[in-house]
Amino acid sequence: MPNKDFKFKIKKIIFDENYHPSDNTRITTNFANLARGEHRQENLRNALKMINNRFNALANWDNPTGERYSVELEIVSVDLDIDADVQGNKKTFPMIEILKTNIVDHQTNKRIQGIVGNNFSSYVRDYDFSVLLLEHNKNQPQFSIPDGFGELHGNLFQCFLSSETYQENFHKPPVICLSVSDNKVYQRTENQHPVLGVEYQPNESSLTEQYFKKMGLQVRYFMPPNSVAPLAFYFFGDLLNDYTNLELISTISTMETFQKIYRPEIYNANAASGQSYQPNLKNQDHSLTRIVYDREERSQLAKDQGKFAEEHFIKPYQAILDQWSANYVL
Prior knowledge:
single chain, 330 residues, alpha+beta, 10-stranded mixed β-sheet, 36% helix, globular
């Protein structure tokens, strides 16, 4: 394994109603989860229709019939070259998976670049949260965070963003859009953006915020127009001015749809967030989408993939990774 710069490889798979998850990849589990079983095609079709409807509702100027735009999605898998075996064949480790949006304008017949990032899935993050953090706190009277928690993951992520592979494939830094934390209270502010909506501020920083900060990302919370709960937007630079309205809408429409499926108690609640908002995963007053999603599998897979990362990446290369991370400079 090189001690300076890692080499990355990108694979892209179109996420549409014909999408079939590969057997040997993480496929963010959320996407794979929707694309299995007897309802797979109906699931995918309904999810994509929800995304397109939401996009057109937000991009409503010069769009009288609400059908001007559609969103195309690509699952982007990032592999890290580890080392070569005796025959010189490269060994790779599946590092992260993100989602790229593209926008089709049916009025002008143009295809517009959207945002990369959106969903974020990572084997090493699964290891950190589902293996390392649990082991560290086992039988401990008080919860604590291990020294250097998230530093290797953060450095690997920033190394990928500064790599030629990223620069050649993507024209802007990523935006990652996650759900809000159910153990924080969010306060509505006076700040409002035409597309992102009303800004909220949390009462305190979360472990996820701190973890993403090690990746170089800052966070702001916005509740878009006609949404019922704020979303967490993790970004570099200036979220409100570095991206066009259509780019931002592609992220909102995609990730809000997925959150309605994954966390209907929050994002498909029947009452909208008020001045002060605490998300509640036990909220009974919500509607379900017609999309089948296995939440049990999602939580189990994080543990399985954390163990996979430990066995195939962390343990075999621990010394080299620690040394590389300690000396890593952007």
